[in-house]
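Thread: manganese (II) ion complex, take 2
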Amino acid sequence: MAPTRASLKGFLATAKKALLLPPTQRSNPLTFVVGNESADLDSLCCTLLFAYFRTHTPPHTLHIPLSNLPRVDLALRPELNAVLSPAGLRPDDLITLTDLPREGLNPEDTHWLLVDHNALTGDLAKSFSNRIIGCIDHHEDENVIPHTLPPGQPRIITKCGSCMSLILDYCKPTWDSISHLPCEAEDEAGSSSTPAAECDAHLARVALAPVLIDTTNLTSKDKTTDCDVRAVELAESKLLPSLQTTATITTPLTPSSSQPPSSSSASTTTTTTRSSSSSAEKYDRQTYHATLSALKEQIAGLSYRDILRKDYKRWTEGPLALGVSAVVQGFEYAFVNAGNKSRGGFLAALKGWAREEEQALDVAAVMTVSRPGGVFTRELLVWGLNEKGVAAVGKFYKKFGETLGLEPWKGGELDSGGEGEAEWRVCWRQKAVSQSRKQVAPMLREAMRESARL
Ligand SMILES: [Mn+2]
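Output below.
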């Protein structure tokens, strides 16, 4: 039998099966690949492809791609469908936190590779922080990943628009080595084979999505690096063979503008059309990016709570907790188009999200990014919810207000409380638009560390 590889779908089915085996039948340790808890396209796609490529690299250890969110939250990410569908996948195929064995996993029986973050957070951190064997990430290095790792495991933490670009750099040799192989998948209907070009097109779609989104289609000067450009070139080169067979190719033997087409030219024309295939959807970089970002920016109709948890990260600094929600529309838009369409409703939802029984936050923050009238705009709302939280807000503003170009939002319409009071909520327009959550969250955490010492 000719050598083959797994399709993405087949790979996910195999990984899920391995995870769900009774503990006694499992081949331990289980090796997981996991992205950060915001579970954005970058994290979800990196998890999938890194696990796939590592599984196809000697010694061919099965790597389980774990999407770092509960299954129900997949529905909050409509852009994900637009990536999965041309990759021959459905949201159901993904492995989420909900799929982890109910009886729990013995940490000793697991290995973890982190992508798109370099410190585990949430419940996973409690059990598995000292089981990490490798990391590829583009956030600030939190220096918790050991510098000495098992042989052959990466510790790559470096700046780049998208973490996917680092993954592709690292996995290019593997991808190149399997590109000629058709995919084999087995399901209830038996086994089926997919041509090599189509398998690569599926992988390429998953690879391209986060790079295009994170670099605004390679146009963001602040974010795009050479590594991102290389990544898009690599992934598109893998798409090309499938596109050439997807299109109807008409090749006259003697292309010439001087001769009118004759009836005989029909016999020298080859026409290749393809059978139905999900990846046969035409790829155009511009269109793919526009489709994904339009879906990603859809928040109209969502509840405020869903908007706050859709792209959310939580950190603890000593006794204090910080939560930062990223929102892909401005506050004014959210007040008019989402939830119960009111400022009060939004602020109540944020307070509810921050309270003890939900996220138990001392500081809650919301960062918006939008383009009203074509102007790239960032807004930042920070809410200190108790004495230490209020002190942290004060420290943050004093230390970083100027760097971030913080100006009162609509003259301070959303502000309440203040220094020395029980709470302090303050909202700014953030003039330094190059500073995303990647930069602002570490600033807030620094302020919290300092106020925790008070
Ligand atoms: Mn990322």
